[in-house]
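Why do we bother with holo predictions? Because pocket geometry can differ from the apo form. Keep that in mind while you read this record for zinc ion.
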Amino acid sequence: MNKALVLFSGGQDSTVCLAWALQKFDAVETAGFDYGQRHAAELTARPRILAQLRSGFPQMAKKLGADHLLPIDTLKAIGGSALTDQVAIAMGANGLPTSFVPGRNILFLTLAAALGYRRGIADLVGGMCETDFSGYPDCRNDTVQSTAKALSLGLAQEIRIHTPLMWIDKAQTWQLARALGGESLVALIVEETVTCYQGDHTNRHDWGYGCGQCPACELRAAGYAKFKSAGA
Ligand code: ZN
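The structure, written out:
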């Protein structure tokens, strides 16, 4: 059986990746990471999104398997990032936003591959994207595919990392959602996924909940506006 493990945070991108994997693979499991993120609202969104996929999308539901939430204290213990500490989101002296968590995606992919090893899954799916990203070096295709190579060597089996969003922008991510699950999937993503770095779930916009001011909200809002203006 053709199985995949999706890195599923509860955000917009990883939800679209999950829908993508549910179309492409025969069986799909999900993994999330509790790393002390300030936007912990993502973690409470995960079970809601999974429950709605199970109840509202029968074609997806029959392929959707176990969900795994893995705790990682280490990133918060290291600290220094706006995603784990009370640090303002701004451009750092190194040219990267303070929301950068060094090594995060490499760590997540490594842990996902380790989990997949135990679950008999060698195909990982992640929402990394280098099209309109914040300059995070661990979102780059070279980083992701080099990690796949290192994992394949280290586990002595081929690990494939699929990144369906790598070369598309945020408007195209909304389009992909609609192609995969129609307007009802778009509506689910608007209503339930959390993108905001502050984890704001009180301010509702046409693109969903969020503070509306952090870089993640700005990207999501701009992408949604472009998607809508393209004749949605
Ligand atoms: Zn925000």
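The beta strands are 3-7, 27-34, 64-71, 123-125, 160-162, 204-205, 208-209.
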